Amino acid sequence: MAPEHGGNRYLPFVDLIKLETIDERTFRSIAYPFSPGGPVGQGRAYGGHVYMQAAWAACQTVEPGFLLHNVTGFFILPGLTSIPFVYKVHIVRNGRSYSTRIVNVTQAEGKGVCFTCTCSFKLAETSPLDVQEKMDIWDKYKSVLAGKTPTDFEECPGLDVSWYWKRRKETGHNDAFPGLETRKVAMAAYNDHRHPLDRRQLILYRTLGDLPPDPNLALCGHLYASDRNSLFIVANHFEVGDVYSQMGSLVHSVVFHTGMEELMFGPSTTTTSPLDDATGKWFCKEDWSDRVAAGRGLFHSKVWAPDGTHLITIHQEGMIRVTKKPTASPDEVAAIQEKEKGWKPREKL
């Protein structure tokens, strides 16, 4: 049995992702998962742990040269922190250019599948058609980034909610996050005068420890980062981070858009961006939400390279309930309406 919250410790990514091979298509986790909030949290495993390990298990079953390009996962049951995850890979197709796998994940006996995902792989290719919006992160967000470097910002909180921020300020304690160094940009100067639909959160990340030159391993590092504090950001932007009654991931999708040169972790390159310094290359996750309804919220994110290349798109649907029962009480309705009255008007387009 794992010690309580044994996954809340700094650990190199290569050690975090390791799997024990049971047979050629069945694998078992070794490292304990991060538990958001540790002893003051809900005692659940961080969703990004099972998400990236399921994809890594699928990677063990494809031919060399096939790289992840699209992963969609469904969270069915909360992950336990003290029992290994077992990953069963099902081969759907081995094609000439694309291959597909389904991974079903179990944990506690008799509980059934706790997570399932579809992983699509493709051979590398180039195209003369390569179009994206131009982006200079340090210019667009100069109100919060000017004169800063990634390490000027605090480590992401273990739980990104107001009571945990207060506790952290009072005690100085923050739960150690394995696998990645993640920094949360203080966005007040950008967000405070904006409507919730126009607010943004930037998270900067890189791996703890070096990675061997395995492209799929690097892609799994990005998958692990993709879920970092995602639904908390939605709740905070709509100002219900202190009143939600239930929260949990439902469906999580990640699409990789570029070749591997831009997606690899490691040494700095030749750009002049503050994301590319002497200590290594950082990636920037730009997060927002444009819809909450029916007890659910939609999380969007784009991941940017230091030079402004759009590398990854992330979409997540999650449960965000602000009522204690399916039908809201008059007091609950009034409380939400009062919050909405304080929202700033939308930006003019």
Structural commentary:
- There is one protein chain.
- The strands form two sheets. Strands 1-2-4-5-6-3-9-14-13-12-8-7 form a twelve-stranded antiparallel sheet, with helices on one face. The protein has a two-stranded antiparallel ribbon with strand order 10-11.
- The mean pLDDT is 94.
- The protein has one domain: Acyl-CoA thioesterase, double hotdog domain (Porin), CATH 2.40.160.210.
- It has helices at 13-16, 47-59, 137-140, 142-145, 162-171, 188-191, 215-225, 230-237, 260-263, 330-341; strands at 19-23, 26-29, 66-75, 86-94, 98-106, 113-123, 180-184, 201-207, 246-256, 276-277, 280-281, 283-293, 296-304, 310-321.
- It contains ten helices and 14 strands.
- It starts with 12 loop residues before the first helix and ends in an 8-residue tail after the last helix.
- It is globular and about 55 Å long.
- By secondary structure, it is α+β, with helices and mostly antiparallel strands.
- α2 packs antiparallel against α7.
- Belongs to the C/M/P thioester hydrolase family.
- One of its GO terms (molecular function) is fatty acyl-CoA hydrolase activity.
- InterPro entries: ACOT8-like_C, Acyl-CoA_hotdog, Acyl_CoA_thio, HotDog_dom_sf, TesB_ACOT8-like_N.
- Keywords: Hydrolase.
- Residues 41-121 form the Acyl-CoA thioesterase-like N-terminal HotDog domain.
